[in-house]
Amino acid sequence: MNFYPGFDIRVDEEKMMFEYGEETFGLEVERRRMDDIRKSLRNANSNGPEIPYAIAMDVGKKRDLKDLINRSLLYGAVIYSKGRFGQEPVRSQGHIHSVSASCGSSTPEVYEIWSGEAIIYMQESAKDNPGKCFAVYAGVGDLVIVPPFWAHYTVNANPNQNMSFGAWCIRDYGFDYEEVRSHGGLAYFPILDVEDKISWTKNESYKAPNICLQKAREYPEFGLKSGVPIYTQYEGDRELFTFVTNPQANPTLWQDFEP
């Protein structure tokens, strides 16, 4: 990896899996299949990598596991395949974080890019009028926050290499796909040109505004520090990611939120 995430984890790009050091716990990866993604693509008949991405939804330092469980905080690690789905880059299908029983709310997610290039696409809802739509470009070490209730998907922005990232989320996470699937995906499709550059095409099943393209930013309002792994920041302040597990505790963070 190009980035040290704060604990001993290594990416095996060939096998699409993670290796853990002696002081690190981690689950075996769950592998998503091409058929899991197909219906959310602009062209459902596209071909692409059979395993678009693999995810280990509970990783970290062994000494922190009890604290993470008590806080209902979960760290996930994800690796995306290189390649493309026809004209589209490799990506997830898109979802909304469902309401978690532990906090009574949909919850946010904090991404940290470890290798490659990513785009986190997000929109305020998956209703016919989805509200504001953003595509946030992120490189190694960049952070991106997706707020509660927003629909989103993750893109490997460079089809010539794998992409990996880590993310904080709530331990009793769940995904709501219903409205996303009823619209055949989210409000914009990423399209690769002959030079592997990405443009954006509207999904006509939505009445969407123009998409806002931007680069990842810093998040001082959340108390996050630039250039410090988010796992290391958790170790330094165990309360720092309470906004992930209890987003209603400080609702002003989400008012007029822009990623």
Task: Describe this structure in a few short sentences.
By secondary structure, this protein is mostly beta strands.
Main attributes of the structure:
glucose-6-phosphate isomerase, 259 residues, 6-stranded antiparallel β-sheet, mainly beta
Task: Give the SSE map.
Blueprint lengths: L8 E4 L4 E4 L3 E3 L3 E3 L1 H4 L15 E4 L2 E3 L3 H7 L1 E8 L3 E2 L2 E2 L6 E2 L11 E7 L2 E6 L9 E6 L4 E4 L4 E6 L6 E8 L4 E2 L1 H5 L5 E5 L5 E5 L9 E4 L14 H7 L5 H4 L14
Parallel strand pairs: 13-20
Antiparallel strand pairs: 1-2, 3-6, 4-5, 5-7, 7-16, 8-9, 10-17, 11-14, 11-16, 12-13, 12-15, 18-19
Explain this structure to me?
This protein is mainly beta and 259 residues long. It contains five helices and 20 strands. The protein has a six-stranded antiparallel beta sheet with strand order 4-5-7-16-11-14. The protein has a four-stranded mixed beta sheet with strand order 15-12-13-20, with no helix packed on it. The protein has a two-stranded antiparallel ribbon with strand order 1-2. The protein is globular. The model has no long low-confidence stretch (mean pLDDT 96).
